Amino acid sequence: MFVSLLKRFGLKLSLNDPRWGHRPDGDHKAQEGRRPGEGPPDLDQMWRDFNARLNRLFGSRGNNGGDAGGPYRGEGRGAGITATVIGFIIALIWLASGAFIVQEGQVGVVTTFGRLSHTTGAGFNWRWPAPIQAHETVNVSQVRTAEIGYRDNVRNKQPNESLMLTDDENIIDIQFAVQYTLKDPVAWVFNNREQDATVQQVAETAIREVVGKSKMDFVLYEGREKVAVDVHNMMQQIVDRYALGVLITNVTMQNVQPPEQVQNAFDDAVKAGQDRARARNEGEAYANQVIPQARGAAFRLQQDAEAYRSMVVENATGNAARFNQVVVEYAKAPAVTRDRMYLDTMQQIFSNTSKVMVDAKSGSNLLYLPLDKLIAQVSANSAAVGSAHSGPVTAPQQDAASSAEVTKALDAVRQRDSRSRDTSRDRETR
Fold first, then answer.
1. Alpha-carbon 109 to chain mean position
2. Percentage helix, strand, coil, to 5, in the chain?
3. CB 32 within 8 A of CB 39
4. pTM
5. Which positions ≥6 away from 24 have C-beta within 8 Å?
6. Could you give the CA distance from residue 290 to residue 281 in angstroms, rounded to a whole number?
7. Burial, 242: exposed, middle or buried (Cβ in 10 Å; 0-12, 13-18, 19+)?
8. Where are the beta strands (DSSP E) in 113-262?
9. Count of alpha carbons within 13 Å of 112, Cβ hemisphere only?
């Protein structure tokens, strides 16, 4: 199109043309008289011809309206039509440059002379072309990540970000990542510059404040989750205060450890602490085993003592009551009560002795004592008493059986004594 327009104006692109820049009618004889080897055309003449063509293009007549401009009136009218068409095409292209497409999950922010005009959703949109309006596309569905203390890999450390001081004046190396999304694209675009760097600085500020208020052991072990939660809450407060239009979604602790320079010494200290904790746990386990046993033994002794005290008191009370009853009966029949007391006393005495009393006067010189049979007979009598009561033979039952045997023996002894006294009386009488 441009080449045809130049041809319509009478211009040719070939610099080797000897008639370039001259009128075909006025300079025809001059150009014919010039030889090809005489040199380039005159620059002044070329400039004059160019000015003349511009005057004809905008409707003016050269040579004060003489006959020289007559042949070019039609060409000037065609050039004006061509310029109008070109201007219309340029206007269409300029208007078409205001069309833009917003992808799903994105928001278009349109500005008019740098001031916010409106926002657009996903799809095909149009605005006034530059320099009247401009637009910027913001991805609000993307989950952005800010890395603190490392870049792309935990091995690629950034000591100026990861090293920080705890409350107990210890240095700790922390690497963590912050994930966030955009909740207000207008605030993200207009309220701050270098938004990603701002979020990273906010994260670094929050972690330093939280760690600066915590102990080193708390951050390393039991408090890692709490530190992440506190950093999340503090970051959200700061970005809201800055009106950054950011929603903090997650804070992940990647690595928490002492500095590499003191890692070995810290491991030794941790092992010593673990040994101390293990020894303490073993001592507590032993104490938990021994103390209940000692308390149980002490409680058992106390109960035995209480039982013995109760037994002694009850026995003493019973003996006192029995003595009172004996006194009453003794007042009624002294002789019978005396004999009964004698017999009961002898029964208690002989029930606890292993001696056998033998009347040597009435017996022969040869004395045979079947002690084994006597003991077996006593045991058989005790077993018989136990079976009669349908239960195991207890110590009181055995004492009762022995008492019965002793009573029989005492009766035999009393009979022999009475016979002996009678015999002695008869001899005295004679």
1. 40
2. 60, 15, 25
3. no
4. 0.49
5. 10
6. 14
7. middle
8. 115-120, 123-126, 133-139, 144-148, 150-151, 153-157, 163-165, 171-182, 246-257
9. 6
Residue type present at position 319: N
What are the pLDDT tens digits along the chain (430 aa)?
Answer: 444 544 554 544 444 455 555 555 544 444 444 554 455 567 777 777 776 776 666 554 444 444 444 444 545 555 566 778 788 888 889 888 888 888 888 888 888 888 888 888 888 888 888 888 888 888 888 899 999 988 888 788 888 888 888 888 888 889 999 999 998 888 898 888 888 899 999 999 999 999 999 888 888 888 888 999 999 999 999 999 988 889 999 999 888 888 888 778 878 887 888 899 999 999 999 999 999 999 999 999 999 999 999 999 999 999 899 888 888 888 888 888 888 888 888 888 877 666 666 666 665 666 666 666 667 766 776 676 555 544 444 444 444 445 555 566 556 656 655 655 555 455 445 4
Three-class SS string for 204-233?
HHHHHHHHHCCCHHHHHCCCHHHHHHHHHH
